């Protein structure tokens, strides 16, 4: 059995069946049992072990306009591939648009045909076609300044366009670069080095029945003002007959004593005493195994290296060992 588990993993359970018929039957002498791999029924979680919430919003009405009204936060929350795509697309469209404006000015003034005339002063020197207009825009926007193409004082519309280009370029740079900087500085990946125990256990500690799990920090950099909270997600029905599918109850992990404020240098054991105030007080071992509930552990604090306070981990514990 151990060899089968090493081969197929823990997502399968081994059952013994007979070669004829269905169900479990006794084996005769010399007849070895046949082992069959049956996939385990995976429990659907509200919060995955990696902290991702399995929530999809629907029937909200004007959902797109709500996201566009807060465009900056929407861009920050997008995945990296979409951020890079929008970043490249925005700059490409802006550059092509502004280069087209310079080409239109040169075309309407007749600079494209008179550029090689000796005594003629164009709007932008040495702009003969669209590629040269595009290069002039890039040199101006990126402050490269090769000195071969330059704007002259005989073109008031070019001066106005130059001012508009400077303002628009500053706005685009501030918006997109600020978005990318905030996305890179988010401490979401800091949670990859925070380890939670795979299972929670219920046993006696200090003469009290206690729910316990462990949390540890792999990095040498500390988390300042680390605080831990636990939420019990369970459906219930109120005395008025209202059904609450995802009712959230707070599990006391030391709020009254200050034990929820962690000094997370070494791995710590988080305890919830099952007393008369605990949601687990009226549950037996058998009923706890059959009940549908989920415990979400939230750890938040200040990242020492960046000084940012953020939600670092949301881990779901749905498996209890007694």
From TrEMBL:
SUPFAM superfamilies given in the database record: E set domains, Voltage-gated potassium channels
Alphabetic keyword roster: Ion channel, Ion transport, Membrane, Potassium, Potassium transport, Transmembrane, Transmembrane helix, Transport, Voltage-gated channel
Region called Disordered, residue ranges: 1-40
Domain of life (superkingdom): Eukaryota
Gene Ontology molecular function: G-protein activated inward rectifier potassium channel activity
UniProt-annotated site: Role in the control of polyamine-mediated channel gating and in the blocking by intracellular magnesium, residues: 173
Gene Ontology biological-process entries: potassium ion import across plasma membrane; regulation of monoatomic ion transmembrane transport
Main location: membrane
GO cellular component: I(KACh) inward rectifier potassium channel complex
Domain named Inward rectifier potassium channel C-terminal: residues: 194-308
Pfam families: IRK, IRK_C
Transmembrane spans: 84-105, 159-182
Protein family membership: Belongs to the inward rectifier-type potassium channel (TC 1.A.2.1) family. KCNJ3 subfamily.
The protein, known as: G protein-activated inward rectifier potassium channel 1
